[in-house]
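Chain A, query sequence.
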Amino acid sequence: MHAPRRSVFRPCIDLHDGQVKQIVGGTLSDASPETLKTNFVASQSPGDFARLYRDNNLKGGHVIKLGRGNDAAAREALAAWPGGLQIGGGMNDQNAQEWIDVGASKVIVTSYLFPGAKFSLERLKKISSVVGKDRLVVDVSCRRRGEKWLVAMNKWQDITDMEVSEESLHELSQYCSEFLIHAADVEGLCQGIDEELVKKLGQWVRIPTTYAGGAKDIGDLDLVEQLSEGRVDLTYGSALDIFGGELVKFESLVERNARRSD
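Chain A, predicted structure.
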């Protein structure tokens, strides 16, 4: 009899203007860049963070390029831990394999799948065939609209026609091996996770899934495990001490992961 799956901590490296940063997700805007609210800018390099995660055996983390000017920083992180990190931000069928070739374990795709903010199954099939289902993560980051969650693209600025639901996740999972879900409305606020969304994800997903957004306490990892029955993993950002936060210690999460994998 298999032991029930445990939720684990998954690390991240968010890149903006070539630096590792933590930002408030809902404030990114091409039209109004002055609205950007930044919680933290690292003095360490992307490679430093990648080596930190490698040395602590924190697998399945992601590097996200938020806008232009981040390619060199992303390559540095991937080179520091070849095969250890996923990469997202501007991925499409033309460049995805190139990122695998420079060391990404998987590529993460969102905006490419939604030309004109409308879901294209054809594009999903295409990029899946290029890199292989096992190398593809679909980012279904979303914003809440009433009682629904709708996929948001283009640095979470544009709402698409896809609702996050059991049906849509099932369809997407035919062509990818993993989901990444940023709850953009609570991203970077350190005011708590979207518990309702995490619970729904636990009911809906059948492939590995990582949730990011609002985690503010070491106990949130247990909460995500309880709500999702261990089907969803958790990323911490602005609350974490390595990102200037005061609420969660990185070492504590490393210890938790080690205990969960025993």
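The mean pLDDT is 93. The CA atoms of residues 195 and 227 lie 7 Å apart.
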